Amino acid sequence: MYFNVGKGIAIVLPTLLYCLLVCKQVSANELTVDNEVVFTALPEQCVTLRQGRSCFATVELQWQSPSKQSFCLYQEGEEKQLACWKNSNNVQIKIDFESNKSVKYQLRKETNNKVVAEAQVEVSWQHKNTARKRRWRLF
Amino acid sequence: MSFKKNNIRQPQNQSFSWLLAISLVIFSSLSYGQDNSDNQENNANKPVIKDGFEWQILLDLSLIYDPTIIAGIEQEKLSEYLLPGLLVDISYKGFYLQSNQRRSHVLLGATELGYQLFIEEEWQLDLILKAYMQGYDSDSLIEYGGGDEELLTGLKEREVTIGAAIRYSQYFENALFRIDFAYGSSGEDENENHVGGLIIDSFYSYLLPYKNWDIYLGAGLTYFSQDIINYYIGVSPDEVLATRPEYNASGSFRGQAEVYAQYPLSESWSFHTGITHSYFSNNVKESPLVDTNQVTQVTLGVMYVF
Fold it and tell me: Which percentage of chain A shows pLDDT scores above 90?
């Protein structure tokens, strides 16, 4: 029994530590579906002065895979692909970001359109866009 | 020659304390005896919805080049260019305390206490209490701020002018025009008579968004009545020196042109910079106390939103 408890602790503790370390590294902009594909968007946050204003940024999207893959890049909710790559395993692309709300990017398999990874650019703001604050900002 | 910002701004601090005290009394008294429903005053024909409880505090850390038209007052030390400010905006049941972020250079003197009389979609009528003119104290400037003794000695302290105004604001798609009709109350003259007079202050501000920048283009025109201008730049008989003849000032205008830009650095920090050119009527230059009738002010800094 003592041995089992000790063994349990020996398994659980490293697992917990591993999870803490690894889980912490998975940032909000990296919503990986396929564990083998790492897909990131930088910057992960775009800040505007006021709520509702479009946020502008140059976003660098990057994906890496242990094996060569053929993927296409989409913006969630849009059917038009932003880019496609054949037999690649490390790709970087810069896009002009312009949106007043958070945008999720998807990496899909070229063959069956299945989503393999997602990355998000969050849009946030400094001032809520209430009527009064709109006037403050104009002041 | 130099002067300490803290010294010359003491009157504004006092005025702000005054405004803050009044506003706290009003806000605290209103928080009792009234319900928590939204602030709506219903008119049979037209509902008027006044601001509910909202607040915002910003910390402004700025560098500012802030020349004055008064001779013998100049910034020299780096510390005289540094200007931290706490900007407070509160509204409750039509009452509000608001800061003009783009003009925080007059520290808390740019804070206004107001009450919304009428609010429509495109226009608004308010009652306002605010500081319209900065004061200066020659003794403090000479003793602590490196003010030019020859030019400033023997001048009585000029206190800040607080004005009670009725303000009309017109809102456009990305712009605002406002005009204040104020009675400005200054200190006392050489005969210990209270000094006060009319101030008409107008300003137009246009917001030009570019990418993540907010760029504001502004222009203003202000009229100060004779009593108020004379209080600041007139030379009374008991202030006369060999180099400083008696002078009676007349009413004057001030025109302003302004460009101000703000950029978000994060959810809490933003960068801001601005330049304001003020042009006073030519007759202002006739005063022995006045060096120039044009000044250009430049600000550069960061703001933290709490």
Answer: 58
CATH class belonging to A28-138: mainly beta
In this structure, is residue B264 part of a structural domain?
yes
Inside any domain, residue B90: yes
CB A92 within 8 A of CB A61: yes
**What's the CA gap between B22 and B78, in Å, rounded?**
35
pLDDT tens-digit profile of B29-55?
444 433 333 333 334 344 445 667 888
pLDDT at A31: 53
CB-CB neighbors (< 8 A) of B270 in chain A: 49, 126
Please say if the pLDDT value at position A12 is more than 90: no
Q: Does residue B78 lie within any of the structural domains?
A: yes
Mean pLDDT of chain B: 80
A136: pLDDT strictly greater than 50:
no
| Residue of B38 and A40 predicted with greater confidence | A40
Gap between the Cα atoms of A30 and A43, Å rounded:
11
Cα–Cα distance for residue pair A74/B66, rounded to 1 Å: 52
Per the rule left: phi > 0, alpha: psi between -120 and 50, beta: everything else, B33 is: left
Q: Where are the domains of chain A?
A: 28-138
Report cis status (omega within 30 of 0) of the bond before A43.
yes
Q: Using CB atoms, which residue from A126, A132, A138 is nearest to B207?
A: A138
> Three-state SS for B6?
helix
The predicted structure's pLDDT at residue A35: 67
Domain that holds residue B105: 5-34+51-305
CATH of residue B291: 2.40.230
| Residue A54, strand partner residues | none
What's B159's DSSP letter?
P
Q: Does B214 touch chain A (CB under 8 A)?
A: yes
> Does B45 map to a domain?
no
**Of B150, B113, B115, B117, which is closest to residue B129 (Cα–Cα)?**
B113
The share of chain B scoring above pLDDT 70, in percent, equals 78
Residue A54 pLDDT? 94
pLDDT at residue number A131: 58
What ipTM does the predicted assembly reach? 0.70
How many angstroms away from the CA of B273 is the closest CA of chain A? Answer: 15
User: Residue B104 corresponds to which tokens in the numbers above?
Assistant: 């925080």
- When divided into structural domains, chain B yields a total of 1
Please give the DSSP secondary-structure letter assigned to residue B290.
Answer: B
DSSP letter (8 states) at residue A77: T
Judge whether B100 is closer than 8 Å to chain A, CB to CB: yes
